């Protein structure tokens, strides 16, 4: 019996620092819901409803970190190029302009998780001096969540 083949994409999200506001001065917070909604909307615009239906079978935002702006997205092996291209065509989340950058693509979650841990620790070492106590707690929570991430 063959398992369902997935691809895991480690993406970096660049937010426009000048327009990091949603309307009334509220900074945008990356969540799994915001990311998946923006990607799904991009799939509909660029590939139509049929493209959305074919890619929704295994599409899921598995992990996101609002501090380092990294996320892991799962999609089926057959549709991963469509999801990848739709992510690169996303121009905004809410009213905030964004750009997605692919850092790694893998066939298993463990390899993607290991790469994400390396990126996370490297980035958090660089920014650990400027983090507040609340951000430090959030950072530790996100790292714990990433370490526990499984299929």
Structural summary, described in words:
With 151 residues, the protein is of the alpha+beta class. It is built from four helices and seven strands. The protein has a five-stranded antiparallel sheet with strand order 4-5-1-7-6, with helices on both faces. A two-stranded antiparallel ribbon has the order 2-3. The model has no long low-confidence stretch (mean pLDDT 83). One of its GO terms (cellular component) is multimeric ribonuclease P complex. Its main location: nucleus. Component of ribonuclease P, a protein complex that generates mature tRNA molecules by cleaving their 5'-ends.
Order of helices and strands: EEEHEEHEEHH
> Measured on Cα atoms, how large is the radius of gyration?
16 Å
Structural class determined from secondary elements: alpha+beta
Spans of 5+ residues with little confidence (pLDDT < 50)?
none
Classify the oligomer: single chain
What does the main sheet amount to?
5 strands, antiparallel
How far apart are the first and last residues' alpha carbons, in Å?
18 Å
- Can you count the helices? 4
Rounded mean pLDDT is 83
Beta-strand level of the residues, as a percent range? Answer: 25-35%
Secondary structure tally: strands: 7
Helix content: 40-55%
Taking strands numbered 1, 2, ... along the chain, how are they ordered across the largest sheet? 4-5-1-7-6
Broad shape? globular
């Amino acid at each position: 019996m063959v398992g369902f083949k997935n691809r895991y994409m480690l993406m970096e999200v660049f937010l426009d620092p000048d327009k990091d506001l949603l309307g009334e001065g509220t900074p945008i917070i990356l969540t799994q819901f915001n990311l998946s909604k923006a990607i799904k909307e991009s799939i509909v615009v660029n590939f139509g409803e049929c493209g959305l239906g074919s890619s929704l079978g295994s599409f899921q935002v598995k992990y996101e970190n609002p501090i380092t702006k990294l996320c892991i997205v799962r999609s089926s092996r057959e549709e991963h190029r469509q999801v990848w291209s739709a992510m690169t065509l996303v121009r905004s989340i809410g009213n905030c302009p964004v750009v997605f950058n692919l850092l790694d693509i893998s066939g298993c979650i463990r390899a993607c998780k290991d790469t994400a841990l390396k990126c996370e620790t490297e980035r958090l070492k660089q920014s650990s001096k400027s983090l507040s106590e609340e951000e430090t707690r959030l950072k530790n929570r996100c790292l714990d969540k990433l370490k526990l991430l499984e299929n």
